[in-house]
Design a protein that fits this description.
alpha/beta, eight-stranded mixed sheet, elongated, 16 strands
Length: 391
Amino acid sequence: MPIINRIADFIPDMVAWRHDLHQYPEIGLEEVRTSAFVVEKLREFGVDEVVAGIAKTGVVGVIRGQGQGGRAIGLRADIDALPIQEETGLAYASRNPGRMHACGHDGHTTMLLGAARYLAETRNFDGTAYVIFQPAEENLGGAQHMVKEGLFERFPMEQVFAMHNWPSIPEGTFMWRNGPIMAAVANIEIRITGKGAHGAMPHQGTDPVVIAAHIVTALQSIVARNLEPVEAGVVTIGHIQGGDTWNVIPESVLLRGTARWFRDEVGDLLEARVKELVPGIAAAFGARAEVSFERAYPATVNDPAATGRAIAAATAVVGEAKVAELPKPTMGGEDFAFMLNAKPGSYIMLGGARGPNDPQVHHPRYDFNDTILPIGASYFATLVEQLLPRA
């Protein structure tokens, strides 16, 4: 079974929706226009119920099948953009300065809208499909907010499913993985306070820049020398801020970074070593350091039974040859983990690579591949029809 024929009829509309969403990107918990767009479309499609305002800008659509069955599943798409200045030069490029759909959430939203339109029109299933449009996936944990606000109590479902476009995977190929598929995430912030001085008289100060350099180097020893080699872990410093000019030693330096892991014990180790090393190094130089290790997202862990159902739906859409196991998990993070901690489900990847040199997600020249819109929509719709078959 290829792309669902009726969904193929929607392709021009889906491309138009995606380009509209792409032009007006909004970052987490500010997706007011995006949320209104989703609500308008769901009502236009005739879904049974549209509930807005969950986790501020989240939306849930309720679509009931033709039968009287009490079973239900959820389908989730993220709707937020990133604080990036777009550099694609496209006719439909972002009109909101400093905001960009650089991760393809405009495509995810569109695919779920396409599935919702089809399901509301055909209702060829027995039970209830909940379409979940989640805000604030990027760093703000919108999934956790929705769960805390009673998502699964208000909309009782057996399982929940999501997907992500992946521009390094061949176009139209699905990739799955049982167990952990994406890493747990922590945000690290370090403030080193020394003593400012003239750059020509360093002996009169306590240089936080030099201390920061030692700390950045030492942090790399955590994974290299404290973590068992067969385990996976990352400690990265991605931001250093300190000083204003050439010849002044600043009073303080700010470092920001990330840690990633899969097993809880590894996360505990990374946190303990960061908190031990940083103050100790600063103290050795006569300075002090404040350390924050804030755990943001848990690991995204797929339920094997649910993943089997995801594989079956993906195979029905693109064929067995285009459905493969992801060789290894990715160290990227995903707040869908909070939903999977509350309900069994599965998160899979849908390839969108046009060529070997495609910009990847979070790049200012990245653009979602519209060719896979009907594939993703057909996958979501097929999941519902396979998991909630009519008697």
